[in-house]
Amino acid sequence: MTGKLYVIGVGPGDPELLTLKAVRILKEVKCICVPKGREEGNSLALSIVQKALSLEGKEIIEAHFPMTKTKQQGLGIRGQGLENSRLDNKWAETVKNILGRLNKGIDVAFITLGDPAVYSTFFYLYDRLLELNPNLKIEIIPGVSSINASAALAGLSLGLADERIAILPANYIDNLKEMLGKFDTVVLMKVHKVFEGIRQTLTEMNFLNNAIYISRAGMEDEKVFKNINSVKEEDLNYFSMIIVKKGR
Amino acid sequence: MTGKLYVIGVGPGDPELLTLKAVRILKEVKCICVPKGREEGNSLALSIVQKALSLEGKEIIEAHFPMTKTKQQGLGIRGQGLENSRLDNKWAETVKNILGRLNKGIDVAFITLGDPAVYSTFFYLYDRLLELNPNLKIEIIPGVSSINASAALAGLSLGLADERIAILPANYIDNLKEMLGKFDTVVLMKVHKVFEGIRQTLTEMNFLNNAIYISRAGMEDEKVFKNINSVKEEDLNYFSMIIVKKGR
Q: If you measure CA to CA, which chain B residue comes closest to A15?
């Protein structure tokens, strides 16, 4: 009997935001696979789980994601071919590690920060795993995403009744004006590197009072800035987002 | 000492998708407020909680939301004034019930299906409560939303790397073509009443193979249709969504 692969969203940081189902499965499985890589936050997933339950006697294996594939990179950067083949090797190794356990009948839990469907690198592995074994049993356990945790912390509804929501990785600020025009709520992810540009656009469009900056939602040092102009350089970090909500 | 109001997302249906935090607080509080109204699914929140813990000895109060305010209705329908004042009375009653307990120092948990920030009627109450008592202690506990549960069930990522996500209540199908053009992922909520129109647009745009219909995600009779054309009249219901994902 082949083992089952569970993909578990462990929530944004607070171990209490794990679901009952996540905790039960994590207690049951003998092997936990932890994403590691350039992306910040990967090792965080394990620390969240460690606070909620004992991992004694469990095998911990690492999944390497050395970089994030982006559309820009897909256009072909110098040396991209080499980088891609290194990346493929890393992925192949992770796939081999996971399938190795499953083929021995060992269930594996792949843990991921927040919710698996919301920008989790797991999906880079998903197709590769199913390609090698189309009959693989994979169950995805949804979790609390950082978007929901940020809205909760800010006391904001993302949408009510007929309202429309756009979720944008913040590198697309070129389209920000159009998006702010068309949507009731715009969620901007990973704003730390483009914060000034966003602040400028919000000011120009007179949306400054509609925007809230949330840093590290669900973590111990979480912070909400209801005044975007009070956000300082040191308040910016990878785990940050801006929610712009019209009619606020 | 005034009590504290907890607004708790109880997840999409499976009691195991409650968070540890939700369960802890629901065990601690003496009073639980349950939304009731025309919207389907409200009484579901209580049944989820009842499966996860004993409610013996707790006071259950009902919050009436007789209808959902929509933009269309806001434009002024015949008799709207009367309907609005009835609605205001219902809300005033709920606010009074909640504040009555809080003022006696009793903590209250307002439970809501899915995640509070995602189309929960609670936010109609939020401003009214804070208006009457700006110092009210309100803590929102995020939960697993039906969107995340649907994506998990369908084995779909909502977004990866630079991808952009739009979440649209399905009454806006006029803009569907534009949205499908501009976003990598389009989540259409409550599609049961406009299913045929959506199917037609997806067919015209050659996106039929990119769309998945998910019915009652997180509930016992949850279902995934990877072929939109196989969805029958009886498969359509209030707890349904379509996720259109390009490059699938």
A: B20
- Hey, are the CB atoms on B148 and A115 less than 8 Å from each other? yes
* Mean local confidence (pLDDT), B8-21: 98
Q: Could you identify the residue written with the tokens 């998990």?
A: B152
Residue A131 vs residues A67, A92, B212: alpha-carbon distances, Å: 22, 12, 20
**Which H/E stretch holds residue A243?**
strand A240-245
Give A100→chain B minimum CA distance, Å. Answer: 22
CATH topology of domain A146-245: 3.30.950
* A 220-239 near B (Cβ less than 8 A): none
Cross-chain CB nearest to A164 (options B11, B126, B166): B166
The ranges of chain B annotated as CATH 3.30.950.10 are 146-245
Summarize pLDDT for B66-75 with one digit per residue, the tens: 554 444 444 3
pLDDT value for B77: 35
User: Where along chain B do the CATH 3.40.1010.10 domains lie?
Assistant: 5-141
Q: For B93-121, what is each residue's pLDDT tens digit?
A: 889 999 999 999 999 999 999 999 999 98
**CATH superfamily ID and name for A4-141:** Tetrapyrrole methylase, N-terminal domain (3.40.1010.10)
Inform me whether the C-beta atom of residue B161 falls under 8 Å from chain A C-beta atoms. Answer: yes
Nearest to A202 by CA among A190, A215, A212, A217: A212
In whole angstroms, what is the distance from residue B185 CA to residue B247 CA?
A: 10
Contact: B24, A18; criterion CB under 8 Å: no
Q: Decide: B37 and B67 in contact? Cβ < 8 Å.
A: yes
CB A22 within 8 A of CB A8: yes
pLDDT band at B54 (very low <50, low <70, confident <90, very high): very high
Which tokens in the block code for residue A99?
């399938």
Q: What is the ipTM of this complex?
A: 0.92
Residue B23: name the closest of B136, B146, B115, B141 by CA.
B141
Residues of chain B neighbouring A18 (CB-CB closer than 8 A): 19-20
What is the block-wise mean pLDDT of chain A (248 residues), using blocks of 10 residues? Answer: 96 97 98 79 85 96 67 40 65 90 97 96 90 94 98 96 92 85 95 93 95 94 96 93 90
Task: Give the model's pLDDT for residue A173.
Answer: 74
The reported pLDDT for the residue numbered B36 is: 81
CATH code of the domain occupying B5-141? 3.40.1010.10
The pLDDT value recorded for residue B87 is 65
Interface contact flag, A117 B163, Cβ < 8 Å: no
Domain with CATH 3.40.1010.10 in chain A: 4-141
Displacement of CA B57 from its chain's centroid (Å): 28
